[in-house]
Amino acid sequence: MNDIVKAPTDFQQAYVFDMDGTIYLGDHLLPGAKRLIEELRRRGIPVRFLSNNPTKDPQQYVEKLEKLGLPTDISDISNTVVTTTNWIKENHPDAKVFAIAEEPLKNSLRQAGIALSEDPEEIDIVVSSYDRGFDYRKLQIAFDAIWFHKRAFLVQTNPDRFCPFPGGRGEPDCAAMTAAIEACTGTTCQVNFGKPSPVMLTAALAGLDVDVAHCVMVGDRLATDIQMALDTGMGSACVLTGEATADDISSLDDAHRPTWVLDRIDRLIPASAWAELGWTENDD
Ligand SMILES: [Mg+2]
């Protein structure tokens, strides 16, 4: 075991998991993920899943987790499609929204009764997101709505610079679209609906009667997963199976360090319980 690894010695009240790089990478569950989730559920401990990715809706995550052997209720999953839609519905229900987004987010906004528009003269809110159909036409609409007509403000689904893929590759994520709009308009994005925003944490723990200080956010990204936990007084566990490396964590000062660092995700089950369950590192 790497000496940076530090695992919890007790069970927590609820477990909130990032998905990509934490539970799975690409189309494969990471070692220990299945037995970990099954053991937490067997003990009746709430398990929730979060994603900053707005290109899928929660139903698509239900299908993905099911295919990977982890059947999950849709109510246990939240992502930026949900948090973005809920925030606009609660705070600006009558706004005309220009969504620089793929279909899942646009559908969700429409279903919530939000009016979508591509007419810069009437747009109130420009939503920047991870949109693989982003182009100059969309940038011009955002520019006209914000800079020329001076009526719209800018929000974003998530602050990620890129979305990691297996094999070390990746795709430009929402931060690239937001930066393009900020660069030409001189505006600043006003709200972020993804981790590390506390709106994500509220969505994750909705309906649970738990003490945040005794819950844990588990993820692979220091700037989003771990930062959200630090900002909200929640425990945090950084897995070394995705973006963050042992060197990244070693170089952090104490204020930015996760509570726990895990070489494999099933170390969330305390070592004493591993012994009772007869678990070893050779099986997952
Ligand atoms: Mg991740």
From TrEMBL:
EC annotation?
3.1.3.-
Name of the protein: Acid sugar phosphatase
| Record-level GO cellular component terms | cytoplasm
UniProt xrefs under SUPFAM superfamilies: HAD-like (SSF56784)
InterPro entries assigned to the protein according to its UniProt record, in alphabetical order: HAD-like_sf, HAD-SF_hydro_IIA, HAD_sf
Looking at its record, which EC class is this enzyme? hydrolase
Q: Which Pfam families match?
A: Hydrolase_6 (PF13344), Hydrolase_like (PF13242)
Signal peptide range? none
Superkingdom of the organism of origin: Bacteria
Q: Which UniProt keywords apply?
A: Hydrolase
GO function term, MF aspect, one: phosphatase activity
Keyword Hydrolase attributed: yes
